[in-house]
């Protein structure tokens, strides 16, 4: 749980930085437009050149931040350690934090693969040791719990 909260915090920090960069680019663009239309002459050219240089710098920074944001966002949606698989004689319980809302949660079995789909383009496939059938599943407060019934004979 601590690992996912750190990933969320980092994603929010990068999102905030990206928003600041976008606002900065908009402000510089407005300033550039104003200086080029209001100040004609040497001062207008100097301020316009400075604005263009700043705009190029900010665009480069925005590009760097966007790459990092998208890369970290993909990492944060791959939940490795937050899924618990509890195997008993006749059942398997899979539980973990999945992004919602509940109307976007889908659970399906394809052979021995359990497929989980959630919000924010979340998709996860878990390979099961043996064939199962979905008994039921519940989604409450961001936690998905799936009850699977093993298809084969029970082990002693």
Shape annotation: rod-shaped
User: Alpha-carbon distance between the termini?
Assistant: 34 Å
User: How much is the radius of gyration in Å?
Assistant: 25 Å
Unreliable spans: 71-80
The H/E string reads HHEEEEEEE
Give the helix/strand class.
alpha+beta
Strand order of the largest sheet: 1-2-7-6
Q: Per DSSP, what share of the residues sits in E-state strands of 2 or more residues?
A: 25-35%
Q: Give average pLDDT, whole number.
A: 77
Characterize the main sheet.
4 strands, antiparallel
Beta strands, count: 7
Number of helices: 2
What is the helical fraction, as a range of percent?
40-55%
In total, the number of domains comes to 2
Compile the SSE list and pairings:
Blueprint: H1 2-38, H2 42-77, E1 83-87, E2 91-97, E3 106-110, E4 113-117, E5 123-127, E6 132-140, E7 143-150
Antiparallel strand pairs: 1-2, 2-7, 3-4, 4-5, 6-7
Helix pairs in contact: 1-2
What does this structure look like?
By secondary structure, this protein is α+β, with helices and mostly antiparallel strands. It has two domains: 2-77; 83-150, Immunoglobulin-like, CATH 2.60.40. The protein is built from two helices and seven strands. The strands form two sheets. Strands 1-2-7-6 form a four-stranded antiparallel beta sheet, with no helix packed on it. Strands 3-4-5 form a three-stranded antiparallel beta sheet, with no helix packed on it.
């Amino acid at each position: 749980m601590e690992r996912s909260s750190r990933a969320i915090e980092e994603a929010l920090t990068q999102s905030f930085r990206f928003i600041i960069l976008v606002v900065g680019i908009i402000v510089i663009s407005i300033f550039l437009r104003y200086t080029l239309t209001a100040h004609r002459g040497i001062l207008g050219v100097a301020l316009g050149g400075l604005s263009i240089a700043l705009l190029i710098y900010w665009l480069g920074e925005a590009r760097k931040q966007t790459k990092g944001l998208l890369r970290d966002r993909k990492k944060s949606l791959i939940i490795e350690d937050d899924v618990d698989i509890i195997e008993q004689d006749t059942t398997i319980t899979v539980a973990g934090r999945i992004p919602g809302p509940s109307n976007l949660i889908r659970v399906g079995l394809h052979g021995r693969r359990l497929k989980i789909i959630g919000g924010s383009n979340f998709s996860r496939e878990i390979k099961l040791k043996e064939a199962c059938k979905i008994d039921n599943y519940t989604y409450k407060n961001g936690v998905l719990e799936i009850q699977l019934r093993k298809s084969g004979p029970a082990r002693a």
